[in-house]
Amino acid sequence: MAEAALDDFRRETRRWLEANCPPEMRTPPKSADDVAWGGRRFEPSSQAQADWLRIMGERGWTVPDWPTEYGGGGLAPAEAKVLKQEMAALGCRTPLYSFGISMLGPALLKYGTEAQKKEHLPKIARGEIRWCQGYSEPNAYSDLASLATRAEDKGDHFLVNGQKVWTSYADKADMIFCLVRTDTSSKQGGISFLLFDMESPGVSTKPILLISGNSPFCETFFDDVKVPKENVVGEINKGWNVAKYLLGHEREMISGMGLRASEQSLPERALAHLGAEADGRLDDPMLRARIAAFEVRAAAFQAMSERFIDMLKAGKADPAQPSMMKYYGTELNKDRHELMMAAGGADALEWDSGRSHGGAAARSWLRTKANSIEGGTSEIQLNIIAKRILNLPGA
Ligand SMILES: Cc1cc2nc3c(=O)[nH]c(=O)nc-3n(C[C@H](O)[C@H](O)[C@H](O)COP(=O)(O)OP(=O)(O)OC[C@H]3O[C@@H](n4cnc5c(N)ncnc54)[C@H](O)[C@@H]3O)c2cc1C
């Protein structure tokens, strides 16, 4: 795209955001409950949050680079990048967090039938339907392809029986994208990718409590759940390809946590809690050095992420590259929160009172421990990097 046209787009976008983004949506979310996930049962935390989701959804800017016929903004990759930059410059919140946007959508765009795209993508873009991911199983562990949830062929439908575990927000989701076994004679070659409603008879969920004190994920049970055949994405028994493609997008999304801006930057937080020397520098030389080293790593990761996303949009990224990004981004996010705790003084450890906003810092720090587990553990990412990128012998 020509430089001048992109400059025009930047100016127009800035003007539009200034006119349309409500002032309350130009601040980071106050807590995990202050984030818009959409869905049939969505209760916005404010009118501004509801307005922002609607306005952005109508413009297709919840999914700026999806085609307009599926509810997207139809932007070229360079324009989508400009939109992201301008939103960041104004401090505009992400209008919608959604597994539909970050995971199912890309998989449907590549593998879905026209009818599946038309049915699901616009609803994802407008935040009308909330999705959850039914991959993990209690007896499959990291060896995802050994999953056992059965889908029996009953002519025009499947009958699904089995159990999933660690299903994030299963109790709040409207629909699930789910891996099921349709053939027991082949491991990877006997898996299908199914979509179904969480309100279908036979689906039940049981929340699991996390170390952070929150309970965002569940055990999910399927007992004779009837799923129409047209809900298979891709071919029957070839769902593993869809699953792997989606996992690449999940890992890319999780790696972005390494870049996540928080309400206060690390130096701001440390200065506020620990004070400054006469020359204005943080009054703790050891922590100062650790923060400086962290900021350098974060800047390098930011540059690498931008390059990776550009390559991905141009179709030139290695399929194993999301494993690299996920591994490094999640370690970086854990390090950021370790430093945030060190920089926050005694207040950061506080768990309950209004002074610490209900222990927001400590709960976020504990949540980051899961970053290197969810979406495939760090050890599994290192195995993939060793095998597919470094071609190490024996890997
Ligand atoms: C916060 C959170 C949200 C999640 N959300 C979802 C969700 O929405 N949907 C969903 O389907 N799943 C979800 N998961 C599950 C997640 O994908 C799994 O926990 C993860 O893939 C690891 O599997 P596991 O827990 O069975 O660990 P295990 O496989 O039991 O692993 C235990 C340990 O052994 C190591 N290990 C295992 N195999 C190997 C190997 N071959 N080489 C080296 N080391 C190995 C692992 O790295 C790990 O350290 C979520 C998990 C978390 C923590």
Describe this structure in words.
- The chain is an alpha+beta fold and 395 residues long.
- Helices cover 44% and strands 14% of the residues.
- It has helices at 3-20, 47-59, 77-90, 99-111, 114-125, 239-255, 266-274, 285-313, 321-343, 345-349, 360-368, 378-389, and strands at residues 131-134, 150-153, 157-168, 175-181, 191-197, 203-208, 217-228, 232-233.
- It has a 4-stranded mixed sheet with strand order 1-4-5-8. It has a 4-stranded antiparallel sheet with strand order 2-3-7-6, with no helix packed on it.
- A hairpin with a 3-residue loop joins strand 2 and strand 3 (157-168).
- Helix 1 packs across helix 3.
- The radius of gyration is 22 Å and the shape is globular.
- It starts with a helix and ends in a 6-residue tail after the last helix.
- The structure holds flavin-adenine dinucleotide.
- Flavin-adenine dinucleotide binds at residues 132-136, 141-142, 166-168, 217, 370, 373-377, 379-380, 383.
